[in-house]
């Protein structure tokens, strides 16, 4: 009897013995990053601070926000924006398409309706890690506490 089961297992299609496969999970939402002008200065790491120019739009072209030379902490923006920024290179210009799941989702936010796909045009001017910013701030505090001596003028 065991031999018959083994023989049937070898000769019958395996689907006859397999359970139905679970339905595939929907693909995770992803940010689309289009290069408008390539950068050359490296990519910002996660959790960094960036200096950018940006214009935020809805898919119909309505501009909901824009600014130049704005510093931003990547930990303080919608997930899709941060995910897109870390794929950019310093000095480049990019277009991000952020699906609702990685933007504001089912919540409206100011002029942005619920479940909106967001489009951003972004110039990545510069970036720094938290450690680099802390070192710069410490250096500035030290310089402020110990200003250079004023040169004495001859009389």
TrEMBL record:
The reaction(s) this protein catalyses: [protein]-peptidylproline (omega=180) = [protein]-peptidylproline (omega=0)
Pfam families per record: FKBP_C (PF00254)
Domain PPIase FKBP-type: 47-128
Entry keywords, A to Z: Isomerase, Rotamase, Signal
Signal peptide: 1-20
Keyword Signal: yes
InterPro entries: PPIase_dom_sf, PPIase_FKBP_dom
Gene Ontology MF terms: isomerase activity
Protein EC: 5.2.1.8
Family statement: Belongs to the FKBP-type PPIase family.
Protein name stated in the entry: Peptidyl-prolyl cis-trans isomerase
Organism: Novosphingobium panipatense
């Amino acid at each position: 009897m065991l031999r018959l089961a083994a023989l049937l297992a070898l000769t019958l299609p395996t689907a006859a013995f397999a359970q139905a496969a679970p339905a595939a999970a929907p693909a995770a939402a992803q940010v689309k990053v289009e290069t408008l002008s390539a950068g050359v200065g490296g990519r910002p790491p996660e959790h960094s601070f960036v200096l950018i120019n940006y214009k935020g739009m809805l898919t119909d072209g309505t501009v909901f926000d824009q600014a130049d030379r704005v510093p931003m902490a990547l930990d303080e923006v919608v997930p899709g924006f941060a995910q897109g920024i870390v794929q950019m290179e310093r000095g480049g210009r990019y277009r991000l398409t952020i699906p609702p799941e990685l933007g504001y989702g089912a919540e409206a936010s100011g002029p942005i309706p619920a479940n909106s796909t967001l489009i951003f045009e972004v110039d990545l001017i510069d970036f720094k890690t938290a450690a680099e910013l802390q070192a710069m701030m410490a250096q500035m505090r030290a310089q402020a506490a110990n200003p250079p001596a004023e040169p004495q003028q001859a009389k």
